[in-house]
Amino acid sequence: MNRQCTLRESVCVEGIGVHTGKPCRVTLRPADENVGIVFHVSGQQIPALAEYVVSTDRCTTLGVDGVRVMTVEHLLSAMAGVGLDNAYIDVDGEEIPVLDGSAKPWAECFYRVGLREQCAERQRIHLTRPVSVMAGDRGIWAMPHAERLLIATVHYDHPLVGTQVAWFPLDKINYLEEIAPARTFGFWEEVQPLLARGKARGGSLDNALVIFPDRYSTPLRFPDEVLRHKVLDIIGDLALVGAQVEALFVAVKPSHTLNTAFALVLRQTIQGE
Ligand SMILES: [Zn+2]
Asked: CA quadruple 101, 107, 112, 114: dihedral positive or negative?
């Protein structure tokens, strides 16, 4: 039986926000079964569900009544990746710490603290019809399938990156080894405009892979690290569905805007059935 899990005990993680550049701290606490993932920010509860997405400009931001929490996707990806269903996340600051720009420190933290199996069974939803969201040359599709499989492809007009495609059996992959280490990336020519817009103030070569015209800022952790980070982001954004959906997913040039719109449509579809 596939049971829900929470943390064995509370854990505190500190760092800086990649977009605000400000110190931030989160305390993750165990939660009862069927609670799901719930952020606590400035006295406000914000469930990690697609209807609470308020912005997808460079990161996924959740909010309720003007209270926001930015850059939730890598934390949520790690939780989904290790099978952590229920937790409260107390946020001190307005952004989740970026750490090394990947989900590895989060996943390692959860394994270090340990997971506690709960009585309730993990919710798995059988999709009964295809669901898709498309925007220009981008799109995500989900088709009924007994296993959770993800085929993803990205294309960048850059000689080092180009087109990357791979498939991942989401129920069988070793998330900690195969997905979690893939870092946030940015193209060198994007960095200056972001700084001008007040974004990526906490960004540095320590927490992002910068892609220069002819080289990477540091050695790659995977030959297709760019694609794998996109998969990491998809896993985090799809956690906003609030349940595991059994489907074959195909993602073409995914983005936070596309991923979270898709999570909302998927959530509405399974609620309407
Ligand atoms: Zn990301």
From this structure: positive
DSSP letters spanning 34-71 = T--EEEEETTEEEESSGGGEEE-SSS-EEEETTEEEB-
Ligand 1 centroid to Cα of residue 1, in Å, is 31
Could you read off the pLDDT of 13-47 as tens digits, one per residue?
A: 999 988 888 899 999 999 999 999 999 999 999 99
Determine the CATH number of domain 124-271: 3.30.1700.10
* Annotated catalytic residue within 19, 40, 74, 256: 256
Q: Compute the distance from residue 105 Cα to the ligand 1 centre, in Å.
A: 14
For residue 230, report the distance from its CA to the centre of ligand 1, in Å.
7
3.10.690.10, 3.30.450.30, 3.30.230.20, 3.40.50.720: CATH of 3-121: 3.30.230.20
19 catalytic? Reply is: no
Q: How far is the CA of 273 from the centre of ligand 1 (A)?
A: 31
- The 10s digit of each residue's pLDDT in 101-149 is 999 999 999 999 999 999 999 988 999 999 999 999 999 999 999 899 9
Task: Return left, alpha or beta for 136; rule: phi > 0 is left, psi -120 to 50 is alpha, else beta.
Answer: left
38 vs 62: CA distance, rounded Å = 11
Q: What are phi and psi of 117, to 5 degrees?
A: -75, 140
The letter for the amino acid at 138 is R
Residues 169, 150: Cα–Cα separation, whole Å: 6
